[in-house]
Amino acid sequence: MPWRLRYAFYVHPLRRDLVPRPSRRGGRLLLAVPFALIAAVTVVDVLVPPDVHLGPFLIAAPAVTASFAGPRATALVGTVAVAAQTVVAVARTSVTDLNHTYQIVALVLISIIATFFAHLRERDENRVARLRSIAHAAQSVVLPPLPERAGPLRIASVYLAADEEAQMGGDLYAAARTVSGTRLLIGDARGKGLDAISEASLVLGAFRVTARREQGLPELVGQLEAGIGSAERTHEVTTAPPDGADEAFVTALVLDIPDHEPVVRLVNCGHPPPLLLSQGRVIPLDTTRTSPPLGLSDVLAADVTVETFPFDVEDVLLLHTDGVTEARDHSRAFYPLTERLAAWARDDPAILLDRLRADLRTYAGGHLGDDAALVTVQKIAPDP
Predict the structure, then answer these.
(1) CA distance 207 to 193
(2) 8 Å CB contact between 186 and 173
(3) What would the pLDDT profile of 118-152 be if each residue is shown by its tens digit?
(4) How far apart are CA 95 and CA 85, in angstroms?
(5) Spatial separation of the C-alpha atoms in residues 198 and 229, rounded to whole Å
(6) Strand partners, 376
(7) Rounded distance between C-alpha atoms, residue 160 and residue 148, angstroms
(8) Contact 265, 272 (CB under 8 A)
(9) How far apart (Å, rounded) are the C-alpha atoms in residues 313 and 323?
(10) What are phi and psi of 312, to 5 degrees?
(11) Which has the closest alpha carbon to 223: 270, 185, 273, 280?
(12) Coil, strand or helix: which one is 283?
């Protein structure tokens, strides 16, 4: 196991809180239900006429307990239910009465089976907890949080996974300091699931290795392209479809923000343009020429074009993936990102990001159709 992943496991111990479970107080309240059922059935069964038998209803107590409690609690409830059935047998006739004997034996068997299934459910929950803990550790390695400060920049980021069980998908972002400024990357890998995560990790790895070098953005984009291309050649199969249906690519924005110049230089590789928030206005930074997504340069041959835009002190850049603009409400209307930002353009970037995240979730009804990544970058006055 790589040392970085081992370190991530060390700082991310098994988190059982990742598995939804009732709280202690909620667990006690739930356990009160089967005990109340046992008490009610026992009292009523003793008081009703002899030809009425309510004992079979006691089977429900351990069966219900197994759905939310562990094997110990289930066994305890089953034991109490068997004891209650024995009390009913003694009160009405005797334990050796054939009818009550069969009821007690059936209750014992059901309690054992319920306890066993409670054990299986608890084991599966622990397994899910371990898998989620591993996912958290992997995320800390593949997609760590961006630094809050990078030279004269204040940075904030948020990742919203479409799959509630996942912590990350194909969206990606990264930052790296150079001698003269800061370079940023935001991208979106094609598809979903492990394939998208694999493509995202390739781009992130190439960016971290090459972004700090003193080279231009075209050379950096070329290195990112080469990283995806070499991985594809390594995993190439001879039975690939001729129409390129399995072609992997990543849309991306690569930015270079100098420390001592009021500009931002960027290359757009088929990605949604960043939004500049300046003096209360929201300005899309649309490039005149868009480069092909990473991984498609051999299919869509084109030169890498670097374009420069103003970016001064107190200005804010919002970088995002298409999971934001393609979020839909109940009427299937797309999320109006630019209009929403116009109302919050003068907010602090961290507050802006929190509002945007909450508003996006509310707009989409709590569930996004695709992963969404958001990054805010504010230029502040450099330290003396």
Answers:
(1) 21
(2) yes
(3) 999 999 988 888 877 776 666 666 778 899 999 99
(4) 9
(5) 13
(6) 156, 318
(7) 19
(8) no
(9) 29
(10) -105, 180
(11) 185
(12) strand
Q: Please identify which residue in the block is written with the tokens 């300046």.
A: 278
CA distance linking residue 350 with residue 235, whole number of Å: 41
Is-contact 82 103, C-beta < 8 A?
no
pLDDT of residue 176: 94
The pLDDT score that the predictor gives to residue 11 is 39
pLDDT at 71: 93
Count the Cβ atoms, other than its own, within 10 Å of residue 124.
Answer: 11
Q: What's the burial of 1, exposed, middle or buried (CB within 10 Å: 0-12/13-18/19+)?
A: exposed
Structure tokens at 305: 């074009």
The residue assigned the tokens 């990790």 is 201
Q: How does DSSP classify residue 12?
A: S
Question: What is the helix (H) or strand (E) element at residue 86, kind and residue range?
Answer: helix 71-92
Task: Say how far apart CA 62 and CA 73 lie, in whole Å.
Answer: 9
Burial of 316 (0-12, 13-18, 19+ CB in 10 A): buried
> What DSSP character marks residue 19?
S
Residues 6+ apart with CB under 8 A from 108: 78, 82
Which of these, 224, 199, 246, lies nearest to 297 by C-alpha position? Answer: 224
SS3 233: helix
- For residues 325 and 337, what is the distance between their CA atoms, to the nearest angstrom? 6
In the prediction, which pLDDT does 313 show? Answer: 92
Q: Which residue numbers in the chain have pLDDT < 70?
A: 1-27, 135-141, 163-169, 191-194, 229-247, 297-302, 382-384
Q: HSE (CB half, 13 Å, CA atoms) of 310?
A: 8
